[in-house]
Amino acid sequence: MNRHHRDDPAFHAIGRHGENPRQNFVTEATANLVTGRNCDGCYMCCKLFEIPTLAKPENVWCTNCDFGSGCTIYESRPQECRDFFCHYRLDKDVPEHWKPNRSHMVLKATADGVRIVAHVDPKRPMAWRAEPYYRDLKAWAANRIQVDKQVHVRIGARTIVVLPDRDVDLGEIGDKLILTRKSWTPQGPRFDFEVLARDDPRARPPRP
């Protein structure tokens, strides 16, 4: 069976920045954080992600980030900053070496849970290929593919899909969409990907 329509979990729309990484499915009040983990000494999210309220683009340091004392507007920081917690803070099964100031990556699950995305510091573009990180990404991909979920790597505007048997470099997605096709092989499920313009007829939701 091939599945390739927009309403299916296998069809993922990626906008200019993908889904805003700071549009989280938890809030500061509801977050169930891993005991013993904190953001001490780590400012990577202050660089990698866009903060619309502050007109801060992706991949540049926030002007309110002080490497000695942290956020200089912490008490009045925007809500999207208050509600953002990376996957290292939220998931006890994420190994300690994934703390962003150590890995040079920020792990973020999408709100629908379909993808886990490793946002990579563009100054360390090959950080995701270093061990033990690449091994972790491959293991997560092998587990998630069984339930139609994926592992992505984002390096600036570039998107790479990590699969158990290969990595698929989709290049810069921009304002386009990713069409995911699932098929079955003797070895198990296989996913293939295609980048489509938003006005491509194949990007339209199927008729009921």
How would you portray this structure in words?
The chain is of the alpha+beta class and 208 residues long. The chain has one domain. The protein is 13% helix and 25% strand. The chain contains five helices and ten strands; from the N terminus they run E-H-E-E-H-H-H-E-E-H-E-E-E-E-E. The chain has helices at residues 45-48, 79-82, 87-90, 100-103, 133-144; strands at 12-13, 65-66, 70-71, 105-109, 115-120, 150-155, 158-162, 167-172, 177-185, 188-196. Strands 4-5-6-7-8 form a five-stranded mixed sheet. A hairpin with a 2-residue loop joins strand 9 (177-185) and strand 10. It is globular. It starts with 11 loop residues before the first strand and ends in a 12-residue tail after the last strand. Mean pLDDT is 86; it is low at 1-20.
Q: Could you report the average pLDDT, rounded to the nearest whole number? A: 86
Q: Fraction of residues in helices?
A: 10-25%
The DSSP helix count reads 5
| Oligomeric state of shown chains | single chain
H/E topology pattern: EHEEHHHEEHEEEEE
How much of the polypeptide forms β-strand, as a percent range?
Answer: 25-35%
Q: How far is it from the N-terminal to the C-terminal residue, by CA?
A: 19 Å
Q: What gross morphology would you assign?
A: globular
Describe the main β-sheet briefly.
5 strands, mixed
Q: Any idea what the radius of gyration is?
A: 18 Å
Total number of beta strands: 10
Strand order of the largest sheet: 4-5-6-7-8
Structural class, by secondary structure, is alpha+beta
Number of separate structural domains: 1
- Flag low-confidence runs: 1-20
